[in-house]
Design brief:
This is Purine nucleoside permease. It comes from Aureobasidium uvarum. This protein has 297 residues and is of the alpha/beta class. 31% of the residues lie in helices and 16% in strands. It has a 9-stranded mixed beta sheet, with helices on both faces. The protein has a two-stranded antiparallel sheet with strand order 4-5. α1 (7-19) packs parallel to α5 and α2 crosses α7. The longest helix is centred in the C-terminal third of the chain and has 21 residues, at 238-258.
């Protein structure tokens, strides 16, 4: 299904799916697939990423950066905190809404990562030419398959200042284990909707894959302004990123069909915590995200 872009569209569409009563989704696998921006220090255009964590980086307090102290790294402050985004426990939000971070099944992620790695990814000369302007790896390398995490905000952000801030926030919200690489506008909304379906036993939260392909970079290469980079630069990553959703994704679909009986029908048992920052889904594995003071179970 196509959800539409942005958090409201994604949540509304996925809610409509599991609330409709038209489908038995209790054994269904959900592959959240789309394009995203990418951190050039972690990925390059055309790459396929698989996330263990999705972090809602836009759910923070925000000041215009010109109106905060000169030593503030950005205008973003975690809600209820007193410092701009830092990967430091002192900066942990004093107020959580529950959608700030989700964690999905790492066993399923590893299998999806392996399967996608079998594919020959699409690339173009035009994309390679723009990548070369970065002058450092992995930005200037060909597309690859990467395990790294997904950042969500309705704001379409760009630039090294925000990239640095949201990298810190990702690390903060995952207790030091997350790696910021993908920038998009839907994943946490989709996951919150699926979580609510799982709470009502309409679906299985352990059967979710987050796959994003990189269509553009989240910051400019050396010698290019951030405004020019976002608004005018021909990054040329869109076409290979669209192609690679199918090229990588079909390997996973084929595996599910081939090994449904005996493997996928039973599910791949997670070895890690899965769920949200509130521990809304009771399970045997304790959360490694969030804080015990917020846990429901």
């Amino acid at each position: 299904m196509t959800t539409g872009e942005g958090e409201i569209n994604a949540a509304s569409s996925v809610n409509a799916l599991w609330l409709s009563g038209c489908f038995d989704l209790t054994s269904t696998y959900f592959m959240i697939a789309g394009i995203s921006g990418g951190n050039p220090h972690v990925v390059t255009t055309g790459s396929v990423t698989f996330a263990k964590y999705a972090v809602q980086v836009g759910l923070q307090e925000e000041f215009d950066q010109s109106q905060v102290s000169a030593n503030a790294t950005s205008g973003y402050y975690p809600q209820g905190a007193y410092y701009p985004d830092e990967a430091n426990p002192q900066d942990y939000p004093g107020s959580l809404y529950g959608t700030e971070v989700f964690e999905v099944n790492e066993n399923l992620l590893e299998r999806a990562f392996y399967l996608a790695s079998l594919a020959t990814l699409n690339d173009t000369e035009a994309a390679a030419t723009y990548r070369a302007t970065y002058g450092y790896a992995p930005a200037n390398q060909p597309p690859s398959v990467v395990k790294c995490d997904s950042a969500t905000s309705d704001q379409y952000w760009s630039g090294s200042v925000l990239g640095y801030a949201f990298s810190n926030f990702t690390e903060l919200m995952t207790n030091g284990t997350g790696l910021y690489c993908g920038t998009q506008q839907e994943d946490n909304a989709t996951l919150e909707s699926l979580l609510r379906g799982a709470i009502l036993k309409k679906l299985d939260f352990s059967r979710i894959i987050i796959m994003r392909t990189i269509s553009d970079f989240d910051r400019a290469p050396p010698g290019e302004t951030e405004v020019y980079h976002l608004l005018y630069a021909a990054q040329e990553g869109f076409l290979p990123s669209i192609q690679n959703i199918y090229i990588a994704g079909i390997e996973i679909v084929k595996d599910v069909l081939m090994y449904w009986n005996g493997t996928y029908d039973k599910g791949l048992e997670p070895r890690n915590y899965i769920g949200d920052v509130f521990n809304s889904l009771p399970g045997s594995i304790p959360p490694n995200i969030g804080s015990a003071s917020y846990y429901i179970h």
